[in-house]
């Protein structure tokens, strides 16, 4: 893969991943415009590596605030850790359950069906983007209720909504989870912190899943497995560094707009982007 393609994808990923506008949808559209196949194992692996770069950007950006809240005391650590576990379990139940339903009703339990096959569906992506946009706009109208933190109930709901995002590229994970927190009365800053803490928990599992998928697909061919895997990983590693740098810029943008009451602008953009996806698709 050419360096120029990686540069473009990394910039798109780094900016869009940490804004509530669905990085996956933007990256997939960019891939299509460049003549790349977003459903191929190599491209999904590159996409996951780009996610890794933004994950490290999240850790670097939020580490100070997490240290002051999540790691302030052993009691705080246990309480926040329990909420993250609850939300992650809810994500797994809803996400894998939804994938099973999709496979059963829409793919007739085909053995070779993988959820990644949906990633190139422009109509599905546009619908997911529009749904995320509506959710963001509605949540932006909710009045903030003081300094309410994430509790067990809100963690459960946020995790469940995150699970809905897994099969559908375009349904922004950060947009959906932050909006759910706001709708439940969670403080804007706390909702933001919890959403990206969940991202750090979820991303390693996604990386492992895609690495295994890539290895299985390439193992079925007559090509040397190790060489192919390394060949696929190198563009991803380069993109990971670039997405880390652009991700830091995007986080500053998101935090500023969220705290200044401009959250609804992201929702309006998602509605506009859904029309663009339909046109490109």
Keyphrases for this structure?
single chain, 281 residues, mainly alpha, 77% helix
Oligomer: single chain
Tally of helical runs: 10
Average pLDDT rating: 82
Proportion of residues in β-strands: under 5%
The separation of the N and C termini measures 22 Å
Any low-confidence stretches, pLDDT <50, length ≥5?
none
Order of helices and strands: HHHHHHHHHH
Number of domains: 1
Count all strands and give the number.
Answer: 0
Specify the structural class: mainly alpha
| Proportion of residues in helical segments | over 70%
Largest sheet: none
Explain this structure.
By secondary structure, this protein is an all-alpha fold. It has one domain (3-280). The chain is 77% helix and 0% strand. The protein is built from ten helices and no strands. It has helices spanning 3-17, 23-33, 41-69, 74-106, 122-140, 152-165, 173-183, 188-219, 225-259, 263-280. α4 (74-106) packs parallel to α6 (152-165), α6 packs antiparallel against α7 (173-183) and α8 packs antiparallel against α9 (225-259). It is globular and about 45 Å long. The two termini are 22 Å apart. The relative contact order is 0.21.
Summed up:
By secondary structure, the chain is mainly alpha-helical. 77% of the residues lie in helices and 0% in strands.
SSE blueprint and pairings:
Elements: H1 3-17, H2 23-33, H3 41-69, H4 74-106, H5 122-140, H6 152-165, H7 173-183, H8 188-219, H9 225-259, H10 263-280
